[in-house]
Amino acid sequence: MLGAPLDYLFAFLVGGLVCLLAQLLIDLTKLTPARILVVYVVLGVFLGAVGLFEPLADFAGCGITVPLIGFGGNVARGVREAVSETGLLGALTGGLSAASGGTAAALCFGYLVALVCHSKPKHP
Amino acid sequence: MNFDRRRYLERVKERESGSPVFKNCFFAYLFGGGICALGQLLLSLYLFWGLSERDAGTLVTVTLIFLSACLTGIGVFDSIARIAGAGTLVPVTGFANAVVSPALDNKSEGLVTGVGAKIFTVAGPVLLYATLSGALYGVILYVVRLFL
Description:
The structure holds 2 protein chains of 2 kinds. By secondary structure, chain A is mainly α. Chain A has one domain. Chain A has helices at residues 5-28, 33-49, 53-60, 62-65, 68-86, 90-98, 100-116. The mean pLDDT of chain A is 92. Chain B has a domain at 19-105. Chain B contains 8 helices and no strands. Chain B has helices spanning 5-15, 20-48, 53-73, 76-84, 86-89, 92-105, 111-118, 123-147. The mean pLDDT of chain B is 91. The chains are: A mainly alpha, B mainly alpha. Chains A and B meet through helix 1, helix 2, helix 4, helix 5 and helix 6 of A and helix 2, helix 3, helix 4, helix 5 and helix 6 of B.
C-alpha cells in the first residue's frame, strides 16, 4: 500500500493553495516569476526558523516540501542542526549542505540537457 | 486615428478575454496540486523501497528536477507552463526549468560564459537569498542559545 489516500488529498489541496497564492501575486502585483521564487524560498527559511515548517510538512507532506518553500525549510533545518553540532560555523555550513541534493541535481541535469538539446523558438 | 490614453485603456479592456485571474488561479491550483500529489506518490514509492524519510524526500526533489529538466529540453515544459502558470513555477519543477532554460538558450555563447554563467540566472538569486536568510537564522539561533 503506497501511503494513505488522505496524504495525497492534503498534498494536492495544500500544494495547490501554495501555487494559487503565487499566481495571485503574479497577476495582481508586479512581481516577476524570479522574484516569486526568491520570496518563496525565503518564506520557507522563515517558516523553518519559527518552527512552523515541520508541523506543516507533517500535515501536508509534499504539498509543502515540493514547492520551493520546502527548499527554504530544508535550509533552515540544516542550519539548526549544524549550529547545534558545530556552533556559529554551522550558520554558514548548514544551509547549503541541506540544499545540496536539489541544487546539484538542477545544475548537473541542467548542464546535460543544455549539452544534448537545442533551444526551441519561443512562442509569443 | 487619434487615441488618447483613456480611450486606449478602454479599448484594451474590451479586448481582454473573460477573467484571466480566475482562470489562471484555477489552473495554477490544479497543476500545482497535481505536481505535489505526484511528489507524494514518488515519496510513498521510495519509502516502500526502504529508503529513509530524509533520503526519500531528497530523491523526490531530484526526480522532479530530472523530469522537468528533460521536459524543458524537448520544449514541452514551456507549453505546460503557459497554461499552468504558478502551478509549475512554484514547485521545484519551476526552479529546475529556471536553471535549464537560460543555460539552453545561451548555449551559442559557449560552455563557460554561455551555459556556465547563464545556468545561474535564476538559480543564483534563489541560492543567494536562501543562503543569506539561512545564515541570518543561524546567527540569531546561536546568539539566542547563548542566553538560554
